[in-house]
Specification:
single chain, 680 residues, alpha+beta, Elongation Factor Tu (Ef-tu), domain 3, eight-stranded antiparallel sheet, 20 helices
Length: 680
């Protein structure tokens, strides 16, 4: 048997019997505060647990579509975490904190009151937060007027996404309708998809407290992924690291908490409060993005707002509001993209400048209340968490925001819009702070590549036009370098990167890889066309001859680089001196001259002769000092020391104390010594 986990939240006007109904359904009184019990109204969030059997119709349907061998794997129980929210207008902020990650809402309307102001406000909040399904409990049905109120409810829901919601008459006092309500809830959950696991767990903290002998405990609704015992987590927005000691759900110890469950986590090393963890914080994992204090959004105002109430006043550019996202509430300033006001029934792209940072994902839904925190005035969806005040209205950013506002739940659209704006992105960080899983993003990248909508190279995804332009510019820069400096193999990587204005290592590596696969070759620190053959321009040939002559005069003991450049330079300097440096670089790159050290360069023929003489001398004598080799070659100490170090680096010789031995013979001697040691 597989248990499916869901979250149900109540909604409705104060004193319509939400908590009483929850207690009648579950046996648990969700009112936990003394003040709540004394006043008879819910002030803060309450919690309960309900287990429901899957309706037979859903089981039969599943069984008809699966083999008998798999029948036992079908879910037959729904484990439902219930969040009971306050209905009083003074505690709407607490109500919003409870319904951020729910699968189904239970809208409660009392038969003796009917549809009331907070009923309407709660319905609008459910719509703003993207809740797609509700059931309606018509409570206190023993007081009569059931048909009239049911008709009123149906009329209120007529032009909403909840027009076909089931309405169930109930009475917590008599027990009437409770079993019917359970059946309806089970039938609704049977049609709801299991909460998604996108590998990005977030626990929106609604309670944080300390237990003696246990330490800090936090509770919340887990969404987007799993947590397990012993796991390292991060608390946002403080970016605090912590470790999960234990996990519970509905008083049962768990090894792993699944998305869609009410979850309690023990974080023993984190204090409760402003310097630790509190309601509104988010427990997540590393590498899912950082908290931000500027986010770009699309706002939506319900056409149902009562024009006679303060909630319907025009929402003006520059308005100060409160943003409710998850369990947090933060003051913010609204900057509208291209209009002065947003009226009821209108949508608008905007930027939120938050008083404090929050961890928001692209696709997160939120509620907007006015500066007095008394009226719900709008809702919205996060479009971009990399907000920037200076770039808010530039063309690329505007296009991204408008494109996403029309299709924020489409992963392909979100990818294309980002690549259109930025040109490229690293595939391992693309949309990491979003509601899309790594598999969804990877599949979308593959689809777009097959359709020609993007270019994938290594760890980079790029807009095709941007990529073509980048490669064309790189080609042009290399061709210009060949034309300007035909004596060089190509363009230095550092210069190429600066000219292309590339900061990303991954992007530059992708460009170089693309070039080398299409007619270019890299050589050490530069890149050039395969067809390019370095050659000295006519005006530099005399400089090359001067260098050859300077080094050939005493090939085993030539002047230092500085000395022969000074000796061969023209009195006036200028271009002739540049020619000498260009010629020397060319001769070194072509292998005609060898760099022995910073100040010592030798002709290749001289290096070969000196190396042969050193090898012969050591082979004959077994080893040699630098002084012996200097005398044998007829050179100076200034030359022989860096030359022997060069032979050490190239694996010809090896220094042993003050002497040199042939590296190959030294290796053979080591093997012989080891063999003798084993035999003895």
């Amino acid at each position: 048997m597989i248990v499916k986990h869901f979250i149900l939240a109540t909604a409705g006007h104060v004193d319509h019997g939400k908590s009483t109904l929850v207690k009648a359904l579950t046996g648990t009184n969700p009112d936990r505060l003394p003040e709540e019990k004394a006043r008879g109204i819910t002030i803060d969030l309450g919690f309960a647990h309900l287990e429901l059997s899957a309706p037979p119709s859903s089981l039969n349907k599943r069984q008809s579509n699966a083999s008998a061998a798999r029948t036992s794997d079908q879910p037959s129980t729904f484990s439902v975490g219930i969040v009971d929210v306050p209905g009083h207008e003074d505690f709407v902020r607490n109500m919003i904190a409870g319904i951020g990650s729910i699968d189904l809402a239970l809208l409660v309307v009392a038969a003796d009151d009917g549809w009331m102001p907070q009923t309407e406000e709660h319905l609008q909040i459910l719509s703003y937060l993207g809740v797609r399904r509700i059931a309606v409990a018509l409570t206190k049905s023993d007081l009569g007027k059931i048909d009239n109120v049911a008709s009123q409810i149906r009329e209120k829901l007529r032009e909403t996404t909840f027009a076909n919601a089931q309405i169930i008459a109930t009475s917590a006092r008599t027990g009437f309708g409770l079993e019917d309500l359970k059946e309806v809830l089970a039938s609704e959950f049977a049609t709801v998809s299991t909460p998604r696991d996108i590998g990005k767990p977030r626990l929106f903290v609604d309670r944080a407290f300390t237990l003696h002998g246990i330490g800090t405990v936090v509770t919340g609704t887990l969404a987007g992924g799993q947590f397990q015992r012993g796991q390292n987590v991060v608390i946002q927005p403080q970016n605090l690291s912590a470790r999960v000691r234990t996990i519970q759900s509905h008083n049962r110890d768990l090894e792993i908490a699944q998305p869609g469950t009410r979850t309690a986590i023990n974080l023993p090393d984190v204090p409760v409060g402003s310097d630790g963890i509190k309601r509104g914080d988010v427990i997540t994992i590393a590498n899912v993005g950082a908290a931000a204090d500027i986010v770009n959004v699309v706002l939506e105002r319900s056409a149902r707002l009562n024009r006679k109430t303060p909630a319907a006043r025009p929402l003006k550019n520059g308005s100060l509001v409160h943003i409710h996202l998850g369990t947090t509430r933060v003051p913010a300033k609204i900057t509208l993209l291209d209009q002065d006001v947003v009226q009821p029934g209108q949508r608008a792209v905007a930027q939120l400048c938050l008083d404090s940072p929050i961890l928001a994902f692209v696709g997160d839904r939120f509620v907007v209340r006015d500066s007095s925190a008394q009226n719900t005035i709008a809702g919205g969806v996060v479009l971009d968490v990399d907000g920037d005040r200076q770039n808010f209205r530039n063309a690329g950013q505007t296009e991204l925001l408008r494109t996403r506002a029309a299709a924020i739940d489409e992963v392909d659209v979100c990818i294309q819009s980002q690549l259109t704006r930025d040109g490229f992105a690293q595939t391992n960080t693309l949309l990491v702070t979003s509601h899309f899983s790594a598999d969804e993003i990877a599949n979308a990248l593959s689809r777009s590549q097959n359709a020609g909508g993007i270019v994938l190279r290594g760890k980079i995804a790029a807009n095709p036009a941007y990529w073509r332009d980048l490669v064309a510019r790189a080609s042009a820069l290399i061709d210009r370098a060949h034309e300007k400096h035909p004596e060089q193999r190509g363009l230095d990587f550092t210069e190429l990167r600066v000219e292309l204005n590339i900061e990303s290592d991954e992007l530059f590596a992708a460009v170089v890889s693309e070039m080398t696969a299409n007619g270019f070759a890299r050589a050490e620190t530069n890149i050039g066309r395969n067809s390019h053959r370095p050659s000295l321009p006519a005006e530099i040939l005399p400089a090359a001859e001067k260098i050859r002559a300077a080094l050939a005069g005493k090939p085993f003991d030539p002047p230092s680089r500085k000395d022969f450049l000074l000796a061969t330079a023209s009195p006036s300097g200028g271009g002739q001196d540049r020619h000498l440096h260009q010629a020397l670089r060319f001769l070194i790159e072509q292998g005609e001259i060898v760099e022995i050290g910073d100040e010592i360069v030798l002709l290749r023929d001289a290096v070969d002769q000196m190396q042969n003489l050193v090898s012969e001398f050591i082979s004959t004598n077994g080893s040699a000092t630098a002084s012996q080799l200097r005398q044998s070659l007829g050179t100076s100490r200034r030359i022989i020391i860096p030359f022997l170090e060069y032979l050490d680096r190239t694996g010809v010789t090896r220094r042993v104390g003050d002497e040199r031995v042939l590296a190959q013979k030294a290796a053979v001697a080591k093997l012989d010594d080891a063999a003798i040691g084993r035999r003895s």
